[in-house]
Amino acid sequence: MSVRCVIGVQWGDEGKGKIVDLLAADSDVVVRYQGGGNAGHTVVVGRQKFVLHLIPSGILHGRTCIVGNGVVVEPEQLFAEIADLESKGAKVAGHLFISERANLVFPYHKAVDRAAEAKRGDAKIGTTGRGIGPCYADKFSRTGIRVVDLFDRELFESRLRANVEEKNGILAMLGGEPVEFEKIRRDYAEYAKRLKPMVADTIAMVNDAIESKKRVLFEAAQGSLLDIDFGTYPYVTSSNSDATGISSGAGVPPGCVEQVIGVAKAYTTRVGSGPFPTELDDDLGNRIREIGSEYGATTGRPRRCGWFDLVGCRHAIRTSGVTALAITKLDVLDQLDTIRVCTAYKAGSRAVKTFPADLRTLEEAKPVYRDLPGWKKPTTEARKLADLPAAARAYLRELEKELGVKVTMVSVGPERQQTVLTDGKL
Ligand code: GDP
Ligand code: IMO
Ligand code: MG
User: Fold this and answer.
1) Residue range 306-321, pLDDT digits in tens
2) Cβ distance 380 to 397 under 8 Å?
3) How far is CA 165 from CA 1, 108, 114, in A?
4) Is residue 116 within 8 Å of residue 90, measured between CB atoms?
5) Which terminal residue of the chain, N or C, has fewer Cβ atoms less than 10 Å from its own Cβ?
6) Would you tell me which CATH number, out of the four given (3.40.440.10, 3.40.50.10610, 1.20.120.450, 3.90.550.10), belongs to the domain 3-100+200-259?
7) At residue 23, does pLDDT exceed 80?
């Protein structure tokens, strides 16, 4: 398969970074197409841990890495990430290309994000505070500033002046601190110089790669249930974070992706607010958080933990046409006596089989569980299918059967080698 993508089929943090890093070994080009610094993709290589926010996880294999037009780019964060990668020996220069059409994140986006969240009080979304929502709002209001605009001084300054004025008005209303035009102008003039060598017509680059049969891998951020259209709106992010975003976020034809790899944890986590029917708000949930080190890679916030939700996952599989599943963090369940999967929801006396749009239904939904026996054996040393305990394989087969998609990869630890390829024969 020459064109593939990796998406999360839960609420983010499924382990996409690890899976992309593995698949990047036999890819030529790796492309991010949405989201921004809200993402935190962890790749562990030996003793080194990398957390990537804006740069595709293919960078550690020295692949051509593209930040597509659908990504929102905060230059300061990008340069910090490049510096961190280079200090750990990774080569970035000549490998990383940023779309001239990508919208830029400015300090006022972060300030508005944070002030709006503070104002919402208990109704807060629980955003990452990286300015993602306000930046995409400007993009769609047609007041955003794109990478290419950095190189037209007059246009840049007039747009920036108008935006600073508008955002300072909003910040005053929200009780936030104003931002200063001159400081931003100076900082971004400096960023423009540093960005210049990386800026490219990435639409041509990606399409040329596809047409010449290079192996292209699209890397999603967030998860399908955080998608602006298909997720738990308004408790979502501000982009199409499933496979539906690829065409608009990278400028490629719909239908060019031959394989859609959906990544799911062997259980479920969510960080931030919003409904989570299978959440374990108890000691077991805390135990899973500690065993799985479920703390955000971007914000350090504790992640909410719960059982595998087949209803949400089926919804994600449908909207993106998932063709293969990678199940991660199986090892986290190693010590449990019983493992539950949610096969449907009940809302009052009504059975709910498809993922509801109505949040009230989702909040009131009671999961219907099927219990499966735990395997009570360590799996972290498993490298081939035969190394996995029979009950672990039965659990994975149950997911496969219920979801109608083959599990092709199983991850049993954060490191590259802690992976079992199933060949679709669980
Ligand atoms: P992403 O945002 O989808 O790339 O996922 P994150 O990096 O935010 O969170 C996944 C976390 O789980 C990271 O700390 C990974 O190093 C870790 N991880 C990935 N796969 C496994 C696994 O199979 N087992 C364990 N124990 N940890 C894993
Ligand atoms: P990766 O790519 C998990 C969540 C936030 C919040 C909501 C909106 O690492 O899987 P935003 O800052 O995007 O406006 O926040 O989305 N969120 C994520 N949760 N993983 C992520 O990225 C996330 N990116 C955003 O916690 O609930
Ligand atoms: Mg993450």
Assistant:
1) 999 999 999 999 999 9
2) no
3) 49, 10, 18
4) no
5) N
6) 3.40.440.10
7) yes
Indicate if the pLDDT at residue 124 is higher than 80.
Answer: yes
pTM over 0.90: yes
CATH superfamily assigned to domain 103-195: Adenylosuccinate Synthetase, subunit A, domain 2 (1.10.300.10)
Ligand 1 pocket residue status of 272, Cβ below 6 Å: no
Q: Do the domains at 3-100+200-259 and 103-195 have one common CATH topology?
A: no
For the CA atoms of 53, 58, 63, 65, the dihedral, rounded to the nearest 10 degrees, stands at -30
Was domain 264-421 assigned CATH 3.90.170.10? Answer: yes
Supply the pLDDT for residue 209: 98
Ligand 1 site, residue 328, Cβ cutoff 6 A: yes
Residue of 41, 61, 95, 315 with catalytic role: 41
Q: With contact defined as beta carbons under 8 Å apart, do 270 and 337 qualify?
A: no
41 classed as catalytic: yes
- The rounded distance, in Å, linking the Cα atoms of 143 and 149 is 12
Q: Evaluate if residue 353 carries a pLDDT over 90.
A: no
Whole-number Å distance between alpha carbons of 66 and 40: 17
Distance between Cα 151 and ligand 2 center (Å): 31
Q: Parse the chain into domains and list their residue ranges.
A: 3-100+200-259, 103-195, 264-421
Question: Tokens 């395997």 sit at which residue?
Answer: 375
- The answer to whether 304 and 270 are in contact (CB under 8 A) is yes
Q: How far is the CA of 361 from the centre of ligand 2 (A)?
A: 23
Active site annotation includes 358: no
Looking at the CA of residue 226, tell me the nearest atom of ligand 2: 16
Return the SS3 of 324.
Answer: strand
Average pLDDT over residues 90-100: 97
CA of 335 to the centre of ligand 2 (A): 29
Burial classification of residue 129, based on how many CB atoms lie within 10 Å of its CB (0-12 exposed, 13-18 middle, 19 or more buried): middle
Q: Is the CB of 262 under 6 A from ligand 1?
A: no
Q: Which atom belonging to ligand 2 lies closest to the Cα atom of 241?
A: 2
Give the number of other Cβ atoms within 10 Å of residue 200's Cβ: 16
Q: What is the DSSP letter of 46?
A: T
pLDDT, tens digit, for every residue of 270-290?
Answer: 999 999 999 999 999 999 999
Identity of residue 128: T
